[in-house]
Amino acid sequence: MPLSNDTLSLPRVSVIMPTLNAEALLDNVLSSIARQTYPQDKIEIILADAHSTDRTRKIGAKYGALVLDDNGKNMEEGKRLALRQATGEIIIFLDADNEVTHEDYFFLAVEALSKNPQALGLEAYYLPSPRMSSFCAYLTALLHISDPICWLMSSNPRRVACDGDIERWILPDGTHSYPLGANGFFYRRADLQSAQANEKFQDTHVALFLMKNGKREWLRLRGRGVHHYYIQTLWKFVQKRRRATAHFLRVQEEMPVNWMKEKPLVPLWLAAFYCVTFFGPLWHTVRGVIRDGDARWLWHLIASPASVLGNAWGVITYKRRGKHKQLIAELQVKQKLKK
């Protein structure tokens, strides 16, 4: 049923966000939350901050966020910390490099979940923005997954129905190889609790658990979601893939659940081999340019080998320094918005 216009009956929404020295981006995402038409007194913002030394905490306080001290070894520990403090019936996970695209996104997302109890959550579209480089738009708006290797391994979700702007999506039978549950994703708190997310949260693990337990559908809102300012340049992309790989390996040691082992389209070794062949990326580049009429697909030719470089660098880094608690924080890549 559609939500009532009575604001007293609307569910509380908790926004959970890990942060570390995010002053260049944080005001942008928090101001996009402040512009939401959803009643602001029904929104709480919780930052799990890994002891920032810049203005991150001051910016959070300006927007009324609850700022927690995150003493963990990775971002997922921070999310679990924030989740234990959250009071909302609806939980949305955002990162500091996100920006909510539309002022009605929260309201429409909550309404979509209320009308579709069979759905495990609601996924954001990653839309391009004038404040991101063409390379960033290729990674987020075209690939969606922000990494050519993961993009190759992921199963292609299928839209099964559409009710106005609410789209219902599902994976092909027999596979769960899709990294679902990250930037701008809405969950019901009850579903997170059923997955013991307070203790075991890792963004793609929760969705994987819920799909395996029967909630195979998720939702999207047509043309709405977040601008994901993942990274602006090729070199910083290599550095960020290094950090992402080290973070992934650390999480795997603690909780060996991995969507890439859930019958992916191609195995990891073949995806990496594809990325360095030139001919494989060239084929997808030409196909993408012709199909979409979007020249940003040309980035695929150089992003593919760059992904292999960054991921290999991350493996080497973790083998050498994986025992160092602050490794993930030290590998952080400075991000910024295009002026």
Description of the structure:
By secondary structure, the chain is α/β, with parallel strands linked by helices. It has a domain at 7-130 and 156-231: Spore Coat Polysaccharide Biosynthesis Protein SpsA, Chain A (Alpha-Beta Complex), CATH 3.90.550.10. The protein contains 14 helices and ten strands. The protein has helices at residues 23-34, 56-62, 75-85, 105-115, 134-142, 148-153, 189-194, 197-200, 203-212, 234-254, 268-275, 279-292, 300-321, 327-330; strands at residues 13-19, 43-49, 66-69, 90-93, 98-100, 119-126, 158-163, 166-170, 185-188, 217-228. The strands form two sheets. Strands 3-2-1-4-9 form a five-stranded mixed β-sheet, sandwiched between helices. Strands 5, 6, 7, 8 and 10 form a five-stranded mixed β-sheet that branches. The protein starts with 12 loop residues before the first strand and ends in a 9-residue tail after the last helix.
Outline the secondary-structure elements.
Elements: E1 13-19, H1 23-34, E2 43-49, H2 56-62, E3 66-69, H3 75-85, E4 90-93, E5 98-100, H4 105-115, E6 119-126, H5 134-142, H6 148-153, E7 158-163, E8 166-170, E9 185-188, H7 189-194, H8 197-200, H9 203-212, E10 217-228, H10 234-254, H11 268-275, H12 279-292, H13 300-321, H14 327-330
Parallel strand pairs: 1-2, 1-4, 2-3, 6-10
Antiparallel strand pairs: 4-9, 5-10, 7-8, 8-10
